[in-house]
Amino acid sequence: MFWPLYIQKSWVGSRFSSSKKTRTFVSYNCMMTANEIRKIFLDFFAEKQHQIVPSAPIVVKNDPTLMFVNSGMAPFKDIFLGNSPIKYPRIADSQKCLRVSGKHNDLEEVGIDTYHHTMFEMLGNWSFGDYFKKEAIAWSWELLTEIYKIPVDRIYVTVFEGDIKDALPFDIESFSYWQQYVAEDRILRGNKKDNFWEMGEQGPCGPCSEIHVDCRPDHERLLISGASLVNNDDPQVIEIWNNVFMQYNRLADGSLHPLPAQHVDTGMGFERLVRVLQEKTSNYDTDIFQPIIQAVAQWSNTNYGSTLAAPEKNHDTSSMREAGVVNNLPYAESSEATDIAMRVIADHIRTISFTIADGQLPGNAKAGYVIRRILRRAVRYGFQFLEFKKPFLYKLVPILATQFKEVFPELKKQEEFVAKVILEEENSFLRTLEIGLRKLDEVIKNNPVNTTEISGNIAFELYDTFGFPLDLTQLILRERGLHLNQKEFDAAMDAQKNRARNATAIDTEDWIVLEEKATTEFVGYDTLACEVQILKYRKVKTKSKEFYQLVFNTTPFYAESGGQVGDTGTLVNADESIVITDTKKENNLPVHLTDQLPLNPAASFTARVDASKRQAISSNHSATHLIHAALKEVLGAHVNQKGSLVNDEYLRFDISHFQKVSDEEIERVEKMVSEKIRENIALEELRNIPLEEARQMGATALFGEKYGDQVRVIIFDKNYSMELCGGTHVPATGQIGLCKIIAETAVAAGVRRIEAITSQNAIRYFEEKAKAFDEVKSNLNNSKDVLKAITDLKEENASLKKKIEKYENEIVASHLNTLKDNYTSKENYNYLVQQVTMPSVDAFKNLTLGLKQQVDTSVTILISVIDHKPMINIAVSDSLVSSKTFHAGNLIKELALFIKGGGGGQPGYASAGGNEVKGIDAALIKALEILS
RNA sequence: GGGGAAUUAGCUCAUCUGGUAGAGCGCAAGCAUGGCAUGUUUGAGGUGGUCGGUUCGAGUCCGAUAUUCUCCA
Description:
9-stranded mixed sheet; alpha+beta; 9-stranded antiparallel sheet; RNA-binding; 6 domains; 35 strands
């Protein structure tokens, strides 16, 4: 392994001195790799009749309150909320999670210490209305102490002490179950903050019981009891597992009611568990992170290890961060700064790689922007502390992909694509840095010499507008003996935050429940209208608008998902009719949006989908499938869907492909698609077939899509297009009528976007083209060869332009010849005041500048009428400009008054235009007066 | 969702407050060297993102729109 032996030795020694039970611990877990540890967890719960499910994609869809999965329970939220039925009463998994904000995990802190992460794995076992506290506690104890062999004397557990305000009792059940395994002084009582878990302000909740492990060396354990350090931010006494027992439902008024079905929701931090079992003082020292860290260390010619060499050191590095200095620690070449940089990189590359593999590309808004920011933070640390001046992150992807190929195969399968996207992002950020450096240089150059302070507003502008990191600004300023006004910077940042907060204020009122029913039945595949009851509704207020959300017992409305937009339509009965403006999914619950609430929400209605719109959408969606299959055929098997939008206007389809799709390839795709349309292939739809069966049939599934175990398969000719899909489709391809690809563009590195139209829109497209062409043709006198007619016209136009230019030049030349001899001499200069006839503004300018060039020490004032408007040009020789005898710009302002206009220019040349031709004479007289 | 910025020659970017659209690289041709790397001279290349407004005059000011970058949520 990579780390010094003596540390392990000291640990081993201490373990031997503890109780008998720990003897096997050391020899067993020394060999345990992270992959083995994970497998043991899943095997353990599989044996206890748990269904093992793969991790849900890390990017969340259909939940307005969440961008990424931030806990093990997030993918099961719809089940807890009662929006989806329970399929398996017992589940276990390892879930990819991402946390970038919140009070316990600020992105800027990750890497500074040795145990925070952006991405982590949460091992979880779940009971949905099945087993409860007794089994959960027994199994967690069995796994930790008998399988993983964690010494009993290092374990502490906590139980909920109760809460007077909520009238919640002490969790005596959990306490008594724990008593069977743990000494009573190791069962600690926790308050509502630590030991009562709530999903949100309302909804399922309940007491929880945490398991903590004391990893400190024995001599420290003797000095201070571990019990006093539990939940006390000690980096060596850590919570590894939380068992949540959901038994209450909190209503909007704050009251708690027992849940009919009780659930268990547990989460064990995988990285922490591995750290404990591998006996490390830091998560980053485990074999989860070391392969990456060692690669980075090698590339940067740096050792990782100062933190490891000083395990008992207080990890407060704020002073280092402030001063930018490097501490001298046992390893001569390593330092805390480079260690931090390596941890940042090791952490962030995981986040970036897995989110991209799950379909989230770096971008400039929302989830995509979060990924971009994390990527940039990693690049920044490499750039600043490890001297990486060229892209390097992308080279780590293969290491990760191999490491996780068993548990998260999606990365291995898209290794090349993910690396390419990261490389492109790195390059683009290095460009951003370069531009920022240039801007900062300019700022420093322009800073007043009598101060060493740089305006905080300017630094904020660099950060806000040009994305130049603040700490780089500070570093560079420090190197030049400058500093910035931090107060100003902070104020500007606060203002920005306030603006954003005010703009996003959203006020969601409580659901008004008319009828308790678990789920909405979707009937929209088979019918576009049906009788419905409103189950519940609520009002939502945002800054700019106000609307209502309605939930029905049954609905024909397709809720936006899988790229297909939500249906619109009406809700009608004998008394009223209201418009449904959109349909969205919230945690798998279809929600209908309307601006107007029915007068009697409890009445029955007919819900009717806008049929022509739905028809257009279905046509575009089916066409998307045909295009997808054609693209795979024409471009190759590497083509994967990376995004899709289907509405009634057009379809947009993003694919992974490393070069432009050529015109010829587009043509072949179009041709193939239109053949399939003409074949009029009937839709074959398989509803509710097992996911495994669908895969074996060869149906196309997407990366980053969360599939249930029952899926729907859409087939247009089983040898051509077979996709897992929840969208709506035409009954036969002939209904698409016509499909035309109208654009092919790039959206990100390795991603191309195809846009196409079908049906009525495609027909209209061709009609308009034909009409435009007819008009062009008739404008060209119905020429047989339109192309040639246009080429001829263009050529003729160019030659005429040249002729005019030549002719104008001749006029200018002849004027030049006569006028250059018309100058009047004064002692210091020659001058000319003259009205001329000129064909264009350009010619007039050329004449004036020509005279300036040809007549030494001259002042030239010319007036001409061009396009019925008077115009004055003044040229002053450079020698007269430098001697400050005349200033063309000043002269012209005086003269422009006479022609009711304005003018200006430089000292050597100025021009003015006006409205009053009558004033020319007066202007000429005035000019002569000034010059003679 | 809200704020800021950018869009000018094939590429990278100038053009201070409205008044003569430019540089470097690249491209083409000529010359120099036996040839090449190269040096040098000349030249071509622009509806200044798109649309509208203010002005005698807009790349420059204002508004809209598109795209990209960036920060906040």
